[in-house]
Amino acid sequence: MSEAQGLHTKEFTLNVGPHHPSTHGVCRFVLQMEGEVITSVTPVIGYLHRALEKICENRTYEQIIPITDRFEYCTAMSCNMGFSLATEKLAGLEVPERAEYLRVIMLELNRIASHLIWFGTTSLDLGAITPFLYGFREREDILDMFEMTCGQRLTFNYIRPGGVSKDIPKAFIPVCKKFLDAFSAKVDDYERVLTENPIFIARNKDVGILKPETAIAYSVSGPSLRASGVKYDLRRDDPYSIYDRFDFEIPTRENGDCYDRYIVRIREMRESAKIVRQAIEQIPEGPIRSKVKMNFKPPAGEVYCRVENSRGEMGFYIQSVGEKMPLRVKMRGGSYNQLQVMPVLCVGHKIADLVAIMASMDIIMPDVDR
Amino acid sequence: MEITEIFKYLYEQLAASGLPQVWVDIVALACAGVIVFGFLAVVALFLVWWERKVSAHIQQRFGPMRTGWHGWRQTIADAIKLLQKEDIIPTLADRPVFFWAPVIAFVAAFMAYITIPFGDGLIVADLNIGILFIVAITSFTVISLLMAGWGSNNKYALLGGMRSAAQVVSYEVPMVVAICSIVLFAGSLSMVDIVQSQAMIYQWYLFRLPFGPIAFIIYIIAGTAETNRTPFDLPEAEQELVAGFNIEYSGMKFAMFFLAEFINMFTVSAIGTTLFLGGWQGPFLPSWMWFLGKTLFLVFVLMWFRWTYPRLRVDQLMEFSWKFLLPISFANLILAGLMKYSGWFNW
What we know:
The complex is a heterodimer of chains A (about 375) and B (about 350). Chain A is α+β, with helices and mostly antiparallel strands and about 375 residues long. Chain A has one domain (about 50-365): Cytochrome-c3 Hydrogenase, chain B (Orthogonal Bundle). In chain A, about 50% of the residues lie in helices and about 15% in strands. Chain A is built from 16 helices and 8 strands. In chain A, a hairpin with a 2-residue loop joins strand 4 and strand 5. The N and C termini of chain A lie far apart (about 55 Å). Chain B contains 13 helices and no strands.
């Protein structure tokens, strides 16, 4: 056996990304591997940095809105919303009642659309290709509704300081109702494909357990936090817009593993559909935007406003010196903190679990890099 | 006129031409080989197209539609494209290993067809160890995957190659044990004998309760794993290993792996048909039609798996084989033995 004693195993470095099928954009991981097991993870970010916050310093407040679309393009509505809220607070703008309802409808539809992307990519990352297309099929309906309203399918430029850019067309409400009626059954379909699937459960149960104290320590927010048993949702705990008028649940789970994150997001889609339905029923007539002066100059000061987006807390910090352009804009995205916690979750798991955990955290790179 | 009669006629013509018998046999075998090769090339192209259509319709898409009727010329176009592509070999690759890997995969995939009966009398060589030969030959695929993984000098490819070696070897065992229970009942390793022992539909081994269905399910699961298809497509797990063992392959070498994969899928289905579904036997239609129909049905089942299930993780895959499939297949073999011994269901 003298030959066998000369053999030894060695750790090796595996570079995953920046272009790799399952890094959701251009994230890069430098992994230390012992065979298939990960011993250390180093995320490398910055491949999608577009200096958007800097660009904002040379734009008027209204010109910044289309730039916020690019911050986190899966939920561009909530980026619009976050920035508009902050600007309104800074400049003291009023928002008409109808505009508030339109905002909520669009935000929640956008949340569903974003969760559908997550649903698709999660199943894709676990090797099931078909649910990906199912998710995108329903997302298509939502994008059609957006297109109907504001002419855009991805970067909406819809929610503006003081209201929204356009009223919904007459055909919108019937189309939306039809979608909502069908959607519940569609989600049932998704669940039938994945939720009870033994392979799916085996891949996700007890994988990447995020303890509540770790989650809080790393400022993880959104569905990933709620899956760890912390019932924290800005729509309920720090209500903005008119979220306090709607009746909806905040789904939580206890274990904080990939499976729980999956369940929370699936249930959140149903809750969002519930909010949209209520908003459609209650929506009043009226103006959609208050009078806002062109190139308005908010008073000097600073403001931080946050909204709950599909990836967690999205905050906008604006510093103004009373000019028509802000002095400084900073955006806080949920994905950044979720990427930060990845090394904690992944060490000791297999490389396949890295993909599953990343998918379940719903990290997208434009949210991290900006 | 039946196909077999045409062959028989041609063979008699050849024999009457005055050549020595050895040469007649060699020429006949070579012709049979060429026919099988041509048939399989067509089958592989057809399966690629079919997989794309099946997946498209499962996913509520159309799939290829532009090239010919429902895109039937698509794979021909793809094959021509792959033939024209530049053949790239990585600088630090182990060149001979890198070169021979796809060849071995391709050859191993085709060799299995020597003993597969496509119809009544439509078999290249009815070896008396038929099924054993197939099991042995298809195992060569592992070597090619391992060679591809090692020769590419790429970490992803290496991980893919190692995974496939572990996977194919461990799924071979329950598969062979499942096949053994059939061989036990048929009393022969010859594929033709196995088919002939299930003349009526109730004699199909699939319907010989209780061991038949169990053996069939084990066989299909292990067969899916053997062909590296979802939920067992770990060697080429796209989302983890990008493309696994064939990450560095392009052009015709990639096409050879690709075609070999589809041929293997057809092999697994063809063996499944022969062992469990009565092979070519069936009423009214010609025998080769029955064989093709049953085989394509099994191919469809494999495609159905692929487009429905997520992928297992590597440790779960091994556990499933060694801790679940293997004990069950052994228990099933013992059950089959007891049944054979006691004479139950000995139709």
